[in-house]
From TrEMBL:
GO terms for cellular component: outer membrane-bounded periplasmic space. Its main location: periplasm. It comes from Salmonella sp. NCTC 6947. Residues 28-145 form the Pili assembly chaperone N-terminal domain. It comes from the Bacteria. This is Chaperone protein PapD. Belongs to the periplasmic pilus chaperone family. GO terms for biological process: cell wall organization. Residues 1-26 form the signal peptide. InterPro entries: Ig-like_fold, PapD-like_sf, Periplasmic_pilus_chap, Pili_assmbl_chap_C_dom_sf, Pili_assmbl_chaperone_bac, Pili_assmbl_chaperone_CS, Pili_assmbl_chaperone_N. Pfam families: PapD_N. It is found in: Periplasm. The gene is papD_2. Keywords: Chaperone, Fimbrium biogenesis, Immunoglobulin domain, Periplasm, Signal.
């Protein structure tokens, strides 16, 4: 390819990109950032809000396992597809299937609740539209585990840290999942090398941060 053809090709790509604006804002959003499904519940309802003032959207809902693979064994989301009018709400009912009884009863199980928004066909030419997807954590909490919830002594306080030369070990001895969103020695300051942690029940996770950068746990350096 000579330079002239190369420049023409680059100019063509640029003109196509300029002519195809990217529609990337999310219109359909759930009414929460995570779902907790207690074992004694027959169903739970998640409200979906269409924030667009003029356009209706289709909303597709389903559940995934903890490896982000679509999972239809334990729960079902109904309806799987619905139309939500502008500035209106839709609802998804999540119900357990018989196989849910086979899930561990001594600890939480993790799934993901997904919503994909499908926009209406644009009447503008050369417009690139995306089907955006929202994924939130879905925790199945058995009855025996739900009884252990103590608001006066939150299970998060049972987390222990062990300092090692190559990092810090976070030990979760509880039957609950722990989400560590930040860790540092000062308020609103994140320790170097720290990344968000999701710690399964009765498991340990090592983070490549220095113990000294966490300061004292009692001082609020560790936040959930």
């Amino acid at each position: 390819m000579n330079k002239t053809n190369h420049f023409k090709r680059q100019a063509l790509i640029a003109s196509v990109l300029l002519a195809a604006p990217l529609v990337s804002h999310s219109a359909i959003v759930p009414d929460r950032t995570r779902v907790i499904f207690n074992g004694n519940e027959n169903s739970i309802t998640v409200t979906l809000k269409n924030g667009n003032a003029t356009l209706p959207y289709l909303a597709q809902a389903w559940l995934e396992d903890d490896k982000f693979a679509k999972d239809t064994r334990y729960f079902t989301a109904l309806p799987p597809l619905q139309r939500i009018e502008p500035k209106s709400d839709g609802q998804v009912k999540v119900q357990p299937l018989p196989a849910a009884a086979s899930l561990p009863q001594d600890r939480e199980s993790l799934f993901y609740f997904n919503v994909r928004e499908i926009p209406p066909k644009s009447d503008k030419p050369n417009t690139l539209q995306l089907a955006l997807q929202t994924r939130i954590k879905f925790f199945y909490r058995p009855v025996a585990v739900a009884r252990q919830v103590d608001k006066t002594h939150p299970w998060q306080t049972k987390l222990t840290l062990t300092y090692q030369g190559d990092g810090v070990i976070f030990d979760n001895p509880t039957p609950f999942y722990l989400v560590i969103s930040n860790a540092g020695s000062k308020e609103n300051e994140t320790a170097s090398g720290f990344k968000n942690l999701l710690i399964a029940p009765r498991e340990k996770v090592t983070s490549p941060i220095k113990g000294a950068s966490l300061g004292q746990l009692a001082g609020g350096g560790l936040r959930r």
